[in-house]
Amino acid sequence: MSRVRSGRIELRRIARRLAVLWLAGTVLSFSSGARAATPAPSAPAAPADRFATFVELNGPIGPAMSRYVERSLADAAGRHSSVVILQMDTPGGLDTSMRDIIKAILASPVPVVSYVAPGGARAASAGTYILYASHFAAMAPATNLGAATPISIGGGEPSAPPVTAPAAPAGPDDKKQKAPEETSPGTASERKAVNDAVAYIRSLAQLRGRNAEWGEAAVRGAASLSADDALKQNVIDIVAKDVPDLLRQLQGRKIKAADREIVLDTRELVVRSVAPDWRTRLLLVLTHPTIAYGLLLVGIYGLLLEGYNPGAVLPGVVGALALLLGLYGLQLLAVNYAGLALMALGIGLIVTEFFMPAYGSLGVGGLAAFVVGSIILFDNDAPGLQVAMPLIAGIAVAGGLVIVIIGWLGARARRLPPSTGVETMIGAGVEAVRDCEDRCVVRYGGELWNARTSSPLRAGQQARIVKVVDLTLWVEPQQK
């Protein structure tokens, strides 16, 4: 008992040290991140009271990202920034988060310039709407935008065959290029979503004086444009190679923001970068599907280990913390709860296999349910909001190997001779403590046992156990 107690005390001591180190590392990383803001592109020096706010929107657009952009715009307005440069490289994201960002842009008293950069970046899907909503739209060379068709998250009813509506024939004097045929989706929910998105992007285009027809084509037909083509078709206002070039081209331009007309003076502006705070960075990490999925697994297995080894403390603490963080991350994502239920069922079947051996049938069924649930957990086509398939495949292979190893160990254990219990005592040698004829006391394994014998025994004589009945050994003298 003393060894077990000392081992538990040591585990608790290690757990406390790990917790202190983790908290210290977290505080240091957050404080260093807060001090070291994202380095903004270089710009000419300027007086301290005139500056441009640089906000970087990099990655999928979700609740954490929208919160970061909204707070950055509010901070720029509070500090009386001359202009906000929203540099984008995004594959898209959630509609609700996109609309929150657009509302913040439309309400901003500071002009917002959406800038798709650096070279090779894109403003796809939700990024296109944000670019249309901004006071100025700019792109770097070798970038693209478009493909703004809304995609249903979480699955839906099967689509009917697409209905093709021919475009109206062009007149003989019409010099414009003939519009492409529009393809409308087949289900009522898809038509509602597409028509709503079309009206939304057209309203933004009319507000900013941009090409509404191409915006509709980007929604209905997933059209895309390069930077130079977007400039020619009045989708954007500027093609700039970097931030200093962008500021140079913005000089003297007029814009209406918050019901007042502003003439931009961007000469020699200092570019100040706004870095996300620790809470936003934490949310960005937790809401990544792979991280949330991993935390969920760590939490489940941590609680299982604590259940198998009560008093270990560390697995239970880590498991509970990881499970709560994983569930928090999942609530900020579009989760298919059928997939989550299948994962829970799979875990339950695998655990049941340990307590009710069913020759692997429960374990294999649980593994199958767990893998299928993992696949459909984020059952959507939204870019950046999915769990990587190689991760799921690796977990499935690892789980299968564990089940196979457990089965092999169980089969090998069945072939081994008994190592505990009454069966291990049969045939073992004992020593008579004193002379006896029928009932006597013998020494076995350093202990004194009551025994019955069919032949008289002398003190110190060796005998062997033939059976055990109610803590009484039946022995017989060993043959010399």
Summary of the model, kept short:
This protein has helices at residues 2-35, 63-78, 95-107, 126-133, 188-208, 212-220, 227-232, 243-250, 278-286, 289-308, 314-331, 337-355, 361-376, 389-415; strands at 51-58, 83-89, 112-116, 122-124, 136-139, 144-146, 163-165, 182-184, 224-226, 238-239, 254-257, 260-263, 270-273, 429-432, 439-444, 447-453, 462-469, 472-477. The chain has 480 residues and is α/β, with parallel strands linked by helices.
Give an overview of the whole structure:
The chain is 47% helix and 18% strand. The chain is built from 14 helices and 18 strands. Helix 2 runs antiparallel to helix 9 (278-286), helix 3 (95-107) runs parallel beside helix 4 (126-133) and helix 10 (289-308) runs antiparallel to helix 11. The protein is elongated, with a radius of gyration of 36 Å.
Chart the SSEs and their pairings.
Layout: H1 2-35, E1 51-58, H2 63-78, E2 83-89, H3 95-107, E3 112-116, E4 122-124, H4 126-133, E5 136-139, E6 144-146, E7 163-165, E8 182-184, H5 188-208, H6 212-220, E9 224-226, H7 227-232, E10 238-239, H8 243-250, E11 254-257, E12 260-263, E13 270-273, H9 278-286, H10 289-308, H11 314-331, H12 337-355, H13 361-376, H14 389-415, E14 429-432, E15 439-444, E16 447-453, E17 462-469, E18 472-477
